[in-house]
Amino acid sequence: MRNRMLLALALIGLLNDSQASSRSSAAEQPSAAAILQELKSFRELGSVLHVAAHPDDENTQLITYFARARGFRTAYLSITRGDGGQNVLGPEFDEELGLIRTHELLAARRLDGGQQFFTRAIDFGFSKDYTETLKIWDKEQVVGDVVRVIRTFQPDVIATRFSLEPGGTHGHHTASAVLALEAFRLAGNPNAYPEQLKGDIVPWQPKRIVINGGGGRGGQRGSSVQQDVSGSDPVLNQSFGEIAGRSRAMHKSQGFGDFGGRGGGGGPRMESFQHLAGDPATKDLFDDIDTTWNRVPGGAEIGKMVDEAISNFKADDPSASVPALLAIRSKLAELPANRLLEDKRRKLDLLLQHCLGLTVETTAQSAEVVPGEEVKLTCKASVGSKQPVQWTAVQFPTAFAVLKNTTELLPSKSETRQITQTLPAKTELTQPYWLREAHVPGLYRVSDPTLIGRPINPPAFPVEYVFSVGGQKLVISDEPVAESAKDKPVRPLEIVSPVSLAFNFEVQLFKPGATRPVEVDVSAVRDNVSGQLKLNAPSDWHVEPASQSFKLAKIGDHKKLSFEVTAPPAATSASIAALAEVGGKTYDNQRAEINYAHIPHLLLQPPARLHAVSVDLEIRGKTVGYLPGAGDSIAEGLEQMGYTVKHLTGDDLTEKGLQGLDAVVVGIRAFNTRTDLAPHIADLFKYVEDGGTVIEQYNRPNGLKTEKLAPFDLQISGLRVTDENAAMTLLAPDHAVLNKPNKITNADFEGWVQERGLYFPNRWDERFTPVLACNDAGEDALKGGILVAKHGRGNFVYTPLAWFRQLPAGVPGAYRLFANLVSLGKE
Fold first, then answer.
1. Which CATH architecture has domain 497-614?
2. What single-letter DSSP state applies at residue 332?
3. Which tens digits make up the pLDDT trace of 110-120?
4. Cβ–Cβ contacts within 10 Å for residue 765, how many?
5. Can you tell me the distance from the alpha carbon of 284 to that of 163, in angstroms, rounded to the nearest whole number?
6. In 10 A of CB 447, how many CB atoms?
7. What is the CATH number of domain 2-17+44-291+430-455?
């Protein structure tokens, strides 16, 4: 029963989401009750845009209420994609995490009925100062993105989630409200961002902007409206709180996977809205806003026709509404085109499709195709009603092809066409549009402005089915998906290169002037692929040979090609690109796949780049044990330093399991995410007592699986230093951590990324020696950046510094300092 309810939620969400294709509706049609609900929504012309900073900031009950109870067009604008956050599911961070959270938001919107938008702003981690945030984001650019979304979506009301006044909240939160208010004031001005005003994008002035709930100090700026957003969905017989809870539970990468059971009941749920600008409301957020068809010149008659269609709707035969819908469609076609009416036309076509029981399905033999290859497609259409429907053509907009062949569709009988099309040679490889170009700090670069605001790419190879219904042309958009077994997820057609390239790790360390082999793994994505591989490096980095040939017989075959790379004599760093020439075309991409059950299969093909670092680095010891936590690349970084890494589990924390290890490194949030460590914590401390070295990275203070993180008292907090350039104070300049085997100076703290550290200890036993201190501007110094304690013959280290960010970024000083931690006690 629960699975059927979730499917119904997703189908209704699809009806409300003009950004989705008809793909999900092909397998199962919505119920008559769901169609009637959407017909009632078609009658409503109100719209609200909810604005906040990150995935999970949104008020899902607010979205559910306006989308489902009021039938309004409702959308959430997340300023960022959550790229800078933490991931409780796996090792993905940064761009990959942002892609995961993008699709978690889309999954949430399919449940609560909203649409989803984004700006180009990058989540660069926690910020304590909204003015810093706006500077890093390039305020003018991001305001322009919000203006574009307002002009595109055309909301009557904007509701921010956070206050304009900072007050103990994330700087991104406050910045999102500042951006929304400024964009509200500019969106209706034709002199503001005039380059956007092309086609059907026109100036648009919402009626009002409000703060929903405050979200910080200073929320009470003006008059306040209290509104009850409770109720139940008439189709599912579930409260909006339950639906909103399931929506919020889609944020699984943030640990909200169990939130669905806590959505709340059907009792009153009051939301507060404080006036910011525009015309104030007094009783309802939509006071003095005409949400009927009367607001559209020439639309009054359409409103009456829709009312009549609702009154005459037959639950036992939705197809009986087809003539009325066709009449409304004809009348709607007489009105001038604009954004609102185009959205209504799409909704009406979807309603017509569902009343007819008309489904389409496009399948490809493979999920992946290379530009220039033929694509063999099976195009299928069927109708469930007795209404006359003719299938007249299949169109391929990007291939500029139209295949005409009129067929009368008979009830419950599928018609199939086998079609072969050639994918245009210039088709771009599958890659999220905001990741196709190198970004600048704080902002993704997007050359095509029409993509800005969209949650994801448009279909790589769109297909359009053309039908004739009652003398009118009906076009249904679709995209090919791969033929797959029932137990495997559906994958859309993805555009790939014939080979993929990969370095062993994204960073490689060199001693100044030294020569090291650099390996590139070339993998075949097609049979019988051959070509030339070369490395493109700056002129002061020497590469031998200039190129190498490869030949791979079958898909999945791979070959490692090794180049001798010599670093410059001085400490420096460089980006080295791998380039493969195949069939006269050059490819430079690697390949990464992300698979989680709650979101679609995700494919990324970013450039294959190596961050080569020439650094003066010494180590002591040979073998390090690594206890993975929530996921990081520390083990690979240790290997780059020259260590052999042994991956450990809780069961390995015995005298025998730890024998021969020079040190043990514990991954980030290990004591938050793992249950097998706490029973063996005493054994880990015994290893230290017997002469070993343990380095524990940061944990969150909440959700710890053990009360004892260290041999001595140690308490961690929520304190962090977000300025990656914050000055470092060497509290124990003579300590081995700062001297052996690498002499650490202030220069080693240059070039750090995102933040200094997070979840700093705020209390510790006097046997700990604090080695480093740092702080954000205007705050007290946090002295727990590195804490070292002698325990027996060994050393225990707790460090909340953001090593998991620094080592994959190739920060030289971070490698030198981490090598010193691992080398403690070794001469």
1. Sandwich (2.60)
2. H
3. 999 999 999 99
4. 13
5. 20
6. 8
7. 3.40.50.10320
